[in-house]
Amino acid sequence: MIKDLTHGPPSKAIVSFAVPMVIGNLFQQLYNVVDSIVVGRFVGTGALAAVGSSFTLMVFITSILLGLCMGASVVFSQFFGAKNYADLKSTVSTSFIFIGVTSLVLSIISIVFVDNIIVFMNIPSELMQDTKDYLLIIFSGIFFTFLYNWAAGLLRALGNSKTPLYFLIIAALTNVVLDLVFVINFKMGIAGAAVATVIAQLLSAVLCVFYCFKKLDFLRFKLKEITFSRRIFRLTASYSLLTSIQQSVMNFGILLIQGLVNSFGATTMAAFAAAVKIDSFAYMPVQDFGNAFSTYIAQNKGAQKQQRIQEGIKVSVLLITVFCLAISAAVWLFADKLMLIFVHASEAEVIAIGGHYLRVVSAFYCLIGYLFMFYGLYRGLGNVTMSIVLSVISLGTRVLLAYTLAPVLKLDGIWWAIPIGWLLADLVGIIYYKKVQIKIPLGGTV
Protein backbone atom coordinates (compact mmCIF):
# COMPACT_ATOMS: atom_id res chain seq x y z
CA MET A 1 0.00 0.00 0.00
CA ILE A 2 1.35 3.42 -1.03
CA LYS A 3 1.08 6.13 1.62
CA ASP A 4 1.22 9.90 1.15
CA LEU A 5 2.87 11.48 4.22
CA THR A 6 2.03 15.04 3.19
CA HIS A 7 -1.48 14.94 4.68
CA GLY A 8 -3.06 14.17 8.05
CA PRO A 9 -1.76 14.75 11.60
CA PRO A 10 2.08 14.61 11.56
CA SER A 11 2.26 12.45 14.69
CA LYS A 12 -0.07 9.83 13.24
CA ALA A 13 1.64 9.91 9.84
CA ILE A 14 5.15 9.48 11.26
CA VAL A 15 4.29 6.85 13.87
CA SER A 16 2.09 4.70 11.61
CA PHE A 17 4.82 4.75 8.98
CA ALA A 18 7.68 4.19 11.44
CA VAL A 19 6.24 1.29 13.46
CA PRO A 20 6.45 -1.33 10.66
CA MET A 21 10.00 -0.15 9.92
CA VAL A 22 10.95 -0.56 13.57
CA ILE A 23 9.45 -4.04 13.79
CA GLY A 24 11.03 -4.97 10.46
CA ASN A 25 14.51 -3.89 11.46
CA LEU A 26 14.23 -5.71 14.76
CA PHE A 27 13.55 -8.87 12.77
CA GLN A 28 16.47 -8.03 10.47
CA GLN A 29 18.72 -7.77 13.50
CA LEU A 30 17.59 -11.25 14.45
CA TYR A 31 19.83 -12.61 11.67
CA ASN A 32 23.05 -11.97 13.55
CA VAL A 33 21.57 -12.06 17.05
CA VAL A 34 20.30 -15.60 16.51
CA ASP A 35 23.71 -16.51 15.08
CA SER A 36 25.31 -15.16 18.25
CA ILE A 37 22.90 -16.91 20.61
CA VAL A 38 23.20 -20.27 18.88
CA VAL A 39 27.00 -20.27 18.52
CA GLY A 40 27.47 -18.77 21.98
CA ARG A 41 25.43 -21.48 23.66
CA PHE A 42 26.14 -24.48 21.44
CA VAL A 43 29.66 -23.82 20.09
CA GLY A 44 31.36 -21.65 22.74
CA THR A 45 32.47 -18.15 23.74
CA GLY A 46 35.29 -18.23 21.17
CA ALA A 47 32.75 -18.69 18.39
CA LEU A 48 30.61 -15.93 19.93
CA ALA A 49 33.61 -13.59 19.87
CA ALA A 50 34.28 -14.45 16.21
CA VAL A 51 30.66 -13.83 15.19
CA GLY A 52 30.51 -10.59 17.16
CA SER A 53 33.70 -9.22 15.64
CA SER A 54 32.54 -10.34 12.18
CA PHE A 55 29.22 -8.57 12.69
CA THR A 56 30.95 -5.22 13.24
CA LEU A 57 32.98 -5.72 10.07
CA MET A 58 29.96 -6.93 8.11
CA VAL A 59 27.95 -3.89 9.16
CA PHE A 60 30.75 -1.57 8.03
CA ILE A 61 31.01 -3.14 4.57
CA THR A 62 27.27 -3.42 3.98
CA SER A 63 26.77 0.14 5.31
CA ILE A 64 28.23 1.35 2.02
CA LEU A 65 25.33 -0.26 0.19
CA LEU A 66 22.78 0.73 2.81
CA GLY A 67 23.89 4.35 2.46
CA LEU A 68 23.52 4.21 -1.31
CA CYS A 69 20.03 2.71 -0.97
CA MET A 70 19.01 5.26 1.67
CA GLY A 71 20.20 8.13 -0.54
CA ALA A 72 18.28 6.78 -3.53
CA SER A 73 15.24 6.42 -1.29
CA VAL A 74 15.31 10.16 -0.55
CA VAL A 75 15.14 10.88 -4.30
CA PHE A 76 12.31 8.34 -4.66
CA SER A 77 10.40 10.13 -1.87
CA GLN A 78 10.89 13.60 -3.31
CA PHE A 79 9.74 12.63 -6.81
CA PHE A 80 6.79 10.77 -5.32
CA GLY A 81 5.86 13.78 -3.16
CA ALA A 82 6.01 15.98 -6.26
CA LYS A 83 3.97 13.39 -8.27
CA ASN A 84 6.78 13.29 -10.88
CA TYR A 85 6.36 9.63 -11.90
CA ALA A 86 8.48 9.82 -15.06
CA ASP A 87 11.63 10.79 -13.15
CA LEU A 88 10.70 8.39 -10.34
CA LYS A 89 10.67 5.54 -12.84
CA SER A 90 14.00 6.64 -14.29
CA THR A 91 15.50 6.81 -10.79
CA VAL A 92 14.38 3.25 -10.09
CA SER A 93 16.13 1.93 -13.20
CA THR A 94 19.30 3.99 -12.82
CA SER A 95 19.76 3.36 -9.10
CA PHE A 96 19.25 -0.38 -9.52
CA ILE A 97 22.04 -0.59 -12.09
CA PHE A 98 24.37 1.74 -10.18
CA ILE A 99 24.02 0.18 -6.72
CA GLY A 100 23.73 -3.38 -8.03
CA VAL A 101 27.08 -3.18 -9.83
CA THR A 102 28.62 -1.56 -6.74
CA SER A 103 27.44 -4.44 -4.57
CA LEU A 104 29.04 -7.04 -6.84
CA VAL A 105 32.35 -5.17 -6.84
CA LEU A 106 32.22 -4.81 -3.07
CA SER A 107 31.56 -8.53 -2.63
CA ILE A 108 34.54 -9.49 -4.79
CA ILE A 109 36.90 -7.06 -3.06
CA SER A 110 35.82 -8.26 0.39
CA ILE A 111 36.43 -11.90 -0.50
CA VAL A 112 39.81 -11.26 -2.12
CA PHE A 113 41.13 -9.22 0.80
CA VAL A 114 39.53 -11.14 3.67
CA ASP A 115 42.91 -12.10 5.19
CA ASN A 116 44.09 -8.48 5.22
CA ILE A 117 40.80 -7.42 6.79
CA ILE A 118 41.16 -9.97 9.60
CA VAL A 119 44.69 -8.77 10.37
CA PHE A 120 43.49 -5.14 10.43
CA MET A 121 40.79 -6.13 12.93
CA ASN A 122 43.33 -7.43 15.49
CA ILE A 123 41.57 -10.80 15.58
CA PRO A 124 43.36 -13.13 18.06
CA SER A 125 45.17 -15.98 16.31
CA GLU A 126 42.96 -18.65 17.88
CA LEU A 127 39.85 -17.04 16.33
CA MET A 128 41.22 -16.25 12.86
CA GLN A 129 40.05 -19.38 11.05
CA ASP A 130 36.52 -19.26 12.48
CA THR A 131 36.25 -15.58 11.63
CA LYS A 132 37.48 -16.18 8.08
CA ASP A 133 35.08 -19.07 7.50
CA TYR A 134 32.15 -16.95 8.68
CA LEU A 135 33.12 -13.85 6.69
CA LEU A 136 33.72 -15.61 3.36
CA ILE A 137 30.18 -16.97 3.42
CA ILE A 138 28.66 -13.67 4.55
CA PHE A 139 30.56 -11.70 1.88
CA SER A 140 29.18 -14.01 -0.81
CA GLY A 141 25.68 -12.79 0.08
CA ILE A 142 26.34 -9.04 -0.14
CA PHE A 143 24.35 -8.76 -3.39
CA PHE A 144 21.26 -10.13 -1.61
CA THR A 145 21.67 -7.44 1.06
CA PHE A 146 21.58 -4.82 -1.71
CA LEU A 147 18.51 -6.34 -3.37
CA TYR A 148 16.43 -6.31 -0.22
CA ASN A 149 17.45 -2.84 0.96
CA TRP A 150 16.99 -1.28 -2.48
CA ALA A 151 13.50 -2.75 -2.91
CA ALA A 152 12.52 -2.02 0.69
CA GLY A 153 13.81 1.54 0.31
CA LEU A 154 11.64 2.01 -2.77
CA LEU A 155 8.52 0.74 -1.02
CA ARG A 156 9.17 2.86 2.07
CA ALA A 157 9.77 5.95 -0.07
CA LEU A 158 6.25 5.46 -1.41
CA GLY A 159 4.89 5.18 2.13
CA ASN A 160 4.66 1.37 2.24
CA SER A 161 6.59 0.26 5.29
CA LYS A 162 4.44 -2.80 6.05
CA THR A 163 5.28 -5.05 3.10
CA PRO A 164 9.06 -5.13 3.76
CA LEU A 165 8.18 -6.04 7.36
CA TYR A 166 6.24 -9.12 6.29
CA PHE A 167 9.12 -10.37 4.17
CA LEU A 168 11.61 -9.75 6.98
CA ILE A 169 9.51 -11.75 9.42
CA ILE A 170 9.46 -14.68 7.01
CA ALA A 171 13.22 -14.42 6.47
CA ALA A 172 14.02 -14.03 10.17
CA LEU A 173 11.99 -17.10 11.12
CA THR A 174 13.70 -19.02 8.32
CA ASN A 175 17.07 -17.94 9.70
CA VAL A 176 16.19 -19.17 13.19
CA VAL A 177 15.16 -22.59 11.92
CA LEU A 178 18.20 -22.95 9.66
CA ASP A 179 20.56 -21.83 12.45
CA LEU A 180 19.29 -24.59 14.70
CA VAL A 181 19.44 -27.17 11.92
CA PHE A 182 22.89 -26.30 10.56
CA VAL A 183 24.66 -25.59 13.86
CA ILE A 184 23.04 -28.12 16.21
CA ASN A 185 21.85 -30.96 13.97
CA PHE A 186 24.46 -30.83 11.19
CA LYS A 187 27.31 -29.72 13.49
CA MET A 188 28.48 -27.11 10.95
CA GLY A 189 29.64 -24.70 13.65
CA ILE A 190 30.12 -21.04 12.81
CA ALA A 191 29.89 -21.73 9.06
CA GLY A 192 26.38 -23.10 9.53
CA ALA A 193 25.26 -19.84 11.13
CA ALA A 194 26.66 -17.89 8.18
CA VAL A 195 24.95 -20.11 5.60
CA ALA A 196 21.63 -19.71 7.43
CA THR A 197 22.00 -15.92 7.35
CA VAL A 198 22.76 -15.77 3.62
CA ILE A 199 19.82 -18.03 2.74
CA ALA A 200 17.49 -15.85 4.82
CA GLN A 201 18.81 -12.69 3.13
CA LEU A 202 18.27 -14.26 -0.29
CA LEU A 203 14.68 -15.12 0.62
CA SER A 204 13.80 -11.61 1.82
CA ALA A 205 15.46 -10.07 -1.26
CA VAL A 206 13.61 -12.24 -3.77
CA LEU A 207 10.24 -11.67 -2.10
CA CYS A 208 10.67 -7.90 -1.87
CA VAL A 209 11.93 -7.39 -5.44
CA PHE A 210 9.21 -9.64 -6.87
CA TYR A 211 6.55 -7.66 -5.00
CA CYS A 212 7.88 -4.32 -6.30
CA PHE A 213 7.73 -5.26 -9.94
CA LYS A 214 4.39 -7.05 -9.64
CA LYS A 215 2.41 -4.63 -7.48
CA LEU A 216 3.63 -1.14 -8.44
CA ASP A 217 1.68 -0.61 -11.64
CA PHE A 218 3.15 2.76 -12.58
CA LEU A 219 6.68 1.35 -12.24
CA ARG A 220 6.28 -1.65 -14.50
CA PHE A 221 9.07 -1.69 -17.06
CA LYS A 222 9.30 -2.75 -20.64
CA LEU A 223 12.78 -3.99 -21.56
CA LYS A 224 13.59 -0.85 -23.53
CA GLU A 225 12.68 1.32 -20.51
CA ILE A 226 15.45 -0.12 -18.34
CA THR A 227 17.93 2.67 -18.97
CA PHE A 228 20.77 4.43 -17.23
CA SER A 229 20.11 8.17 -17.17
CA ARG A 230 23.21 10.31 -16.63
CA ARG A 231 21.08 13.18 -15.33
CA ILE A 232 19.31 10.98 -12.82
CA PHE A 233 22.57 9.27 -11.91
CA ARG A 234 24.19 12.60 -11.03
CA LEU A 235 21.17 13.54 -8.95
CA THR A 236 20.90 10.16 -7.20
CA ALA A 237 24.66 9.99 -6.64
CA SER A 238 24.63 13.42 -5.00
CA TYR A 239 22.39 11.93 -2.31
CA SER A 240 23.51 8.30 -2.34
CA LEU A 241 27.27 8.81 -2.26
CA LEU A 242 27.08 11.33 0.57
CA THR A 243 24.67 9.13 2.54
CA SER A 244 26.95 6.16 1.92
CA ILE A 245 29.90 8.18 3.20
CA GLN A 246 27.89 9.06 6.30
CA GLN A 247 27.01 5.41 6.96
CA SER A 248 30.57 4.31 6.25
CA VAL A 249 32.04 6.93 8.56
CA MET A 250 29.70 5.83 11.33
CA ASN A 251 30.55 2.18 10.97
CA PHE A 252 34.26 2.68 10.30
CA GLY A 253 34.45 4.40 13.66
CA ILE A 254 32.69 1.42 15.22
CA LEU A 255 35.11 -0.88 13.39
CA LEU A 256 38.08 0.98 14.91
CA ILE A 257 36.49 0.61 18.35
CA GLN A 258 36.04 -3.11 17.70
CA GLY A 259 39.74 -3.38 16.89
CA LEU A 260 40.59 -1.68 20.19
CA VAL A 261 38.23 -3.97 22.11
CA ASN A 262 39.80 -7.01 20.41
CA SER A 263 43.17 -6.05 21.90
CA PHE A 264 41.75 -6.87 25.36
CA GLY A 265 41.30 -10.56 24.47
CA ALA A 266 38.62 -13.12 23.64
CA THR A 267 36.65 -12.72 26.90
CA THR A 268 36.18 -8.99 26.34
CA MET A 269 35.37 -9.63 22.67
CA ALA A 270 32.61 -12.06 23.67
CA ALA A 271 31.21 -9.64 26.26
CA PHE A 272 31.27 -6.75 23.80
CA ALA A 273 29.67 -8.91 21.07
CA ALA A 274 26.72 -9.78 23.31
CA ALA A 275 26.34 -6.30 24.83
CA VAL A 276 26.40 -4.57 21.44
CA LYS A 277 23.58 -6.83 20.22
CA ILE A 278 21.49 -5.79 23.23
CA ASP A 279 22.50 -2.18 22.69
CA SER A 280 21.53 -2.31 19.01
CA PHE A 281 18.14 -3.83 19.80
CA ALA A 282 17.51 -1.19 22.46
CA TYR A 283 18.04 1.88 20.31
CA MET A 284 17.18 0.34 16.94
CA PRO A 285 13.61 1.73 17.14
CA VAL A 286 14.85 5.33 17.27
CA GLN A 287 17.28 4.65 14.41
CA ASP A 288 14.40 3.41 12.28
CA PHE A 289 12.28 6.30 13.50
CA GLY A 290 14.98 8.61 12.12
CA ASN A 291 14.83 6.84 8.76
CA ALA A 292 11.03 7.09 8.70
CA PHE A 293 11.31 10.75 9.67
CA SER A 294 13.65 11.26 6.69
CA THR A 295 10.96 9.95 4.32
CA TYR A 296 8.36 12.18 5.98
CA ILE A 297 10.64 15.21 5.57
CA ALA A 298 11.54 14.35 1.96
CA GLN A 299 7.91 13.91 0.86
CA ASN A 300 6.89 17.19 2.50
CA LYS A 301 9.89 18.95 1.01
CA GLY A 302 8.79 17.69 -2.41
CA ALA A 303 5.28 18.98 -1.67
CA GLN A 304 6.80 22.27 -0.34
CA LYS A 305 5.04 22.07 3.05
CA GLN A 306 7.44 23.85 5.39
CA GLN A 307 5.02 24.26 8.30
CA ARG A 308 4.32 20.55 8.27
CA ILE A 309 8.07 19.87 8.51
CA GLN A 310 8.30 22.08 11.60
CA GLU A 311 5.36 20.29 13.22
CA GLY A 312 6.97 16.93 12.50
CA ILE A 313 10.18 17.97 14.25
CA LYS A 314 8.34 18.91 17.46
CA VAL A 315 6.42 15.63 17.49
CA SER A 316 9.59 13.63 16.89
CA VAL A 317 11.50 15.21 19.79
CA LEU A 318 8.68 14.33 22.18
CA LEU A 319 8.30 10.75 20.98
CA ILE A 320 12.05 10.07 21.04
CA THR A 321 12.39 11.44 24.57
CA VAL A 322 9.58 9.31 26.00
CA PHE A 323 10.73 6.12 24.30
CA CYS A 324 14.43 6.51 25.13
CA LEU A 325 13.81 7.24 28.82
CA ALA A 326 11.74 4.08 29.11
CA ILE A 327 14.20 1.83 27.26
CA SER A 328 17.18 3.32 29.15
CA ALA A 329 15.60 2.39 32.47
CA ALA A 330 14.84 -1.16 31.30
CA VAL A 331 18.34 -1.89 29.97
CA TRP A 332 20.07 -0.31 32.98
CA LEU A 333 18.04 -2.36 35.44
CA PHE A 334 18.26 -5.71 33.64
CA ALA A 335 21.72 -5.49 32.04
CA ASP A 336 23.13 -8.67 33.59
CA LYS A 337 19.99 -10.69 32.95
CA LEU A 338 20.01 -9.60 29.30
CA MET A 339 23.57 -10.89 28.95
CA LEU A 340 22.31 -14.35 29.95
CA ILE A 341 20.48 -14.53 26.61
CA PHE A 342 23.85 -15.04 24.93
CA VAL A 343 26.03 -16.85 27.49
CA HIS A 344 25.65 -19.33 30.32
CA ALA A 345 25.50 -18.06 33.90
CA SER A 346 28.90 -19.67 34.50
CA GLU A 347 30.55 -17.04 32.26
CA ALA A 348 30.73 -14.56 35.14
CA GLU A 349 33.48 -12.36 33.66
CA VAL A 350 31.75 -12.04 30.31
CA ILE A 351 28.49 -11.07 32.05
CA ALA A 352 30.24 -8.52 34.29
CA ILE A 353 32.04 -6.78 31.42
CA GLY A 354 28.96 -6.70 29.19
CA GLY A 355 26.67 -5.57 32.01
CA HIS A 356 28.97 -2.69 32.89
CA TYR A 357 29.09 -1.56 29.26
CA LEU A 358 25.29 -1.57 29.07
CA ARG A 359 24.87 0.46 32.27
CA VAL A 360 27.25 3.15 31.06
CA VAL A 361 25.80 3.49 27.56
CA SER A 362 22.09 2.87 28.18
CA ALA A 363 21.79 5.87 30.50
CA PHE A 364 22.27 8.13 27.47
CA TYR A 365 19.98 6.64 24.82
CA CYS A 366 18.14 9.96 24.47
CA LEU A 367 21.32 11.45 23.02
CA ILE A 368 21.57 8.92 20.19
CA GLY A 369 17.81 9.18 19.63
CA TYR A 370 18.11 12.91 18.94
CA LEU A 371 21.15 12.26 16.74
CA PHE A 372 19.23 9.83 14.54
CA MET A 373 16.48 12.45 14.25
CA PHE A 374 19.01 15.03 13.03
CA TYR A 375 20.38 12.52 10.51
CA GLY A 376 16.86 11.98 9.16
CA LEU A 377 16.02 15.69 9.13
CA TYR A 378 19.05 16.83 7.18
CA ARG A 379 19.02 13.84 4.82
CA GLY A 380 15.33 14.40 4.04
CA LEU A 381 15.97 18.07 3.32
CA GLY A 382 18.78 17.14 0.96
CA ASN A 383 21.52 18.48 3.24
CA VAL A 384 23.36 15.18 3.47
CA THR A 385 26.62 17.02 4.11
CA MET A 386 25.37 18.04 7.53
CA SER A 387 24.51 14.42 8.35
CA ILE A 388 28.09 13.51 7.47
CA VAL A 389 29.44 16.30 9.68
CA LEU A 390 27.40 15.02 12.63
CA SER A 391 28.60 11.46 11.99
CA VAL A 392 32.22 12.58 11.88
CA ILE A 393 31.82 14.51 15.13
CA SER A 394 30.07 11.65 16.91
CA LEU A 395 32.35 8.83 15.75
CA GLY A 396 35.50 10.93 15.56
CA THR A 397 35.11 11.97 19.18
CA ARG A 398 34.32 8.42 20.19
CA VAL A 399 37.39 6.95 18.48
CA LEU A 400 39.76 9.70 19.60
CA LEU A 401 38.64 9.53 23.23
CA ALA A 402 38.58 5.74 23.28
CA TYR A 403 42.16 5.41 22.04
CA THR A 404 43.28 8.24 24.33
CA LEU A 405 41.57 7.01 27.49
CA ALA A 406 41.90 3.23 27.09
CA PRO A 407 45.59 3.11 28.16
CA VAL A 408 44.62 4.87 31.40
CA LEU A 409 41.01 3.91 32.14
CA LYS A 410 41.02 0.58 30.26
CA LEU A 411 37.52 -0.45 29.12
CA ASP A 412 35.84 2.44 30.95
CA GLY A 413 37.62 4.83 28.62
CA ILE A 414 36.11 3.07 25.61
CA TRP A 415 32.62 2.88 27.08
CA TRP A 416 32.40 6.54 28.21
CA ALA A 417 33.68 7.81 24.86
CA ILE A 418 30.40 6.69 23.28
CA PRO A 419 27.86 9.01 24.99
CA ILE A 420 30.34 11.91 24.91
CA GLY A 421 30.48 11.59 21.11
CA TRP A 422 26.68 11.56 20.90
CA LEU A 423 26.42 14.66 23.08
CA LEU A 424 28.86 16.74 21.03
CA ALA A 425 27.14 15.81 17.75
CA ASP A 426 23.71 16.70 19.21
CA LEU A 427 24.96 20.11 20.30
CA VAL A 428 26.25 20.84 16.80
CA GLY A 429 22.98 19.60 15.28
CA ILE A 430 20.96 21.91 17.54
CA ILE A 431 23.17 24.95 16.93
CA TYR A 432 23.04 24.44 13.16
CA TYR A 433 19.26 24.00 13.20
CA LYS A 434 18.82 27.20 15.22
CA LYS A 435 20.71 29.06 12.52
CA VAL A 436 18.91 27.68 9.48
CA GLN A 437 15.43 26.71 10.70
CA ILE A 438 13.86 29.79 9.09
CA LYS A 439 15.79 29.11 5.87
CA ILE A 440 14.97 25.43 5.31
CA PRO A 441 15.51 24.99 1.54
CA LEU A 442 12.27 23.84 -0.01
CA GLY A 443 11.97 25.72 -3.31
CA GLY A 444 11.74 22.68 -5.58
CA THR A 445 11.77 18.93 -5.57
CA VAL A 446 15.47 18.22 -5.59
UniProtKB/TrEMBL annotation:
Subcellular location(s) per record: Cell membrane
Chief location bin: membrane
GO BP, sorted A to Z: monoatomic ion transport
Transmembrane segments: 12-31, 51-76, 96-114, 134-158, 165-184, 190-212, 255-276, 315-335, 355-376, 388-408, 414-433
Top-level taxon in the UniProt lineage: Bacteria
Pfam families: MatE (PF01554)
Cited InterPro entries: MATE_fam (IPR002528), MATE_MdtK (IPR050222), MdtK-like (IPR048279)
One of the record's GO molecular function terms: antiporter activity
Bilayer topology: Multi-pass membrane protein
Keywords: Antiport, Cell membrane, Ion transport, Membrane, Transmembrane, Transmembrane helix, Transport
Cellular component GO terms held in the UniProt record: plasma membrane
Recorded family membership: Belongs to the multi antimicrobial extrusion (MATE) (TC 2.A.66.1) family.
Function comment: Multidrug efflux pump.
Protein name according to UniProt: Probable multidrug resistance protein NorM
Species of provenance: Hydrogenoanaerobacterium saccharovorans
